[in-house]
Write a structure and sequence with these properties.
Immunoglobulin-like, five-stranded antiparallel beta sheet, extended, 5 helices, single chain, alpha+beta, eight-stranded mixed beta sheet, 41 strands
Amino acid sequence: MTSNNQVSPVIRISQENRDASARATHLEAANRKFLLTTNERKQMSTKTNYKRIALVAVASLGLGVLSSVPSQAAFSGTAGSNITITTTAGTGSISKSDSTTAGSFTISALALGTNVDSLSVTAVAKSLPTTATQTHRLIMQVVDTISSTATNSFNPMSLNAASSPVVFTPRPYVDGRNQLLDSGTAFGFTAVTAGYLNLNMIGFLESATARTSNGGAYVYTIVVTPYTSGTAGTAVTADLTINVTAAASTSTTIAPGSSTAFIAATSAAATADASVSALATASSTAAAVVRVRTFNANGDLKPESITATITGAGVLSYGGITGTSLTGVGDADGDTDISVLPDGRAGNATITISTTTRSFAAKTMVFYAAAPATLVASVSAPLAAVGSNSDVVRVTATDSAGVNWGGTLYIYASSATDAVVAGAVRATVASSAVACAVPTATQPAHVCPVTGNAAGTAKFKVSTYPTAALATAAASGAEVTSNEVSVVVSTATAATVKLEFDKATYAPGERARIYVTPLDSTGKALPAGTYSALLASGGISTASAVTFAGSTTTADSLTATSITTSATSSSTTGARAGSMVYTVYMPVSGGTVTISATGSTSLPVAGRVAVSASATVTDSGAAALAAVTALATTVASLKTLITTLTNLVLKIQKKVKA
């Protein structure tokens, strides 16, 4: 039986031939395809190469074209695409326009050239408020260039575009950084090396031209023009606005805290409350003026209704109306004077002032009678010098109601003998009489001057009349005279100098007064005066940590060598007649404070010696420790005593038992 796997030789040969034929056919096809593909690849490769060559050629041509572009192309900003201007509006006012109200702008540009690229900056008015004049200029100021990466230089300049690079000719106000430039004036900014040019500037309105009170926007166009080797590129612009607010002076709203009311003898003097006294005799002439001024928030005077009332002596007057109470008065300009008139009554007057928005502290003044009832004189300067002495005798004058009398008083020597020493006998002509200064807010007594003529003692009187003849006529009532006082005139000279503290002991940090006193050869004080070179160089010295009070360096540091002494004493200031006073503050720690000085050429040779003074500063801690120690000692003593007594009691008990 023939197997199924057996193949006929004919068929096998036929198959082999067919396979060979198939293989041959396949090989031929494969070879043809390979060759075709290869040729296509070769052709594509050649095209790609041509394209690449073309691109390279184009690129080369492009580079060649770029290299032939004019040199200003080196400045990236020539076409304006790389120049930026950033602005911030400013806020001015009618009364103020300066760097604090300025708008600001920043200019940034990329320069690729070296020493060929420049910028010019200027400004042109674009629009102004409708009521403003067209003459307003913008003042530009350079702030800094610190963020620039290019080395740069800049100047106020005029342009010379024919130069290469552009020439910036400096203007008369020299170098640049903080120069002020009017709009229309160019500002040069040159890149010395390639990089970014960054310029920060501010702009504000010039003050020569008044700004409109209605306010509004002042708009200026900032113009930045690039230059490369003298050739201008495309300018870049941006608007800068200065917003000016309407004048605050137009506001009629009163700011109560700014309003004022002061009383004085005259309106011009009413800048602070003064002590005013006036004759009580009825008159239409103002004895005093209360000046009321009302302001808006801007500090401009604006009107407000005023109410004024007076109690006591006197009456008020405004606008032809006189009375003790005035309501709804006030000048249209906000500056109002209310007069205080005498009505014949002597005494104190109290004036209350209020406006719609504010009440002021009460004002006071004094009306005195035609003549004083009493004059009490006293000597204010223990020693007068030969020559003029402005404050030697003081007089307290009061009328019958006890009111301080503010009229004029006259001083004269009691006799011709007294006049040899000081002053002069009573004048026979009123114009020759010596008048005393009338009281003031700081000095309520009459202050009378005396001229020293020679060493000795002279007696003086004070009268309400300048001459005896007028006193006899008694035109204004009987003459009133003061008690007689004695004035001592000294011609002694300084022989020594003395230093002293006002106290012997002080608390830590307590105020102390140091007195420098020139003395005569008998150790007595001298009249007031200036003693040049009283102390040797360095003045007063101390090793202690005292601190100083006052406002004059010389006095505060104790280094003065020339000393001016006081004619009178004062419990308020610490002044002492015949001495110069220094105010110091003691150290905060305990111990002894010693001051020293040496007399100098104002003194005779014998007086040019060292002098000193000492005071003690108590240490609270040390004092407390001393007190505790003393207490401990006392307790120990008591303990010993108790022990002794206990032993004694025990001994007695033993004897009793025995």
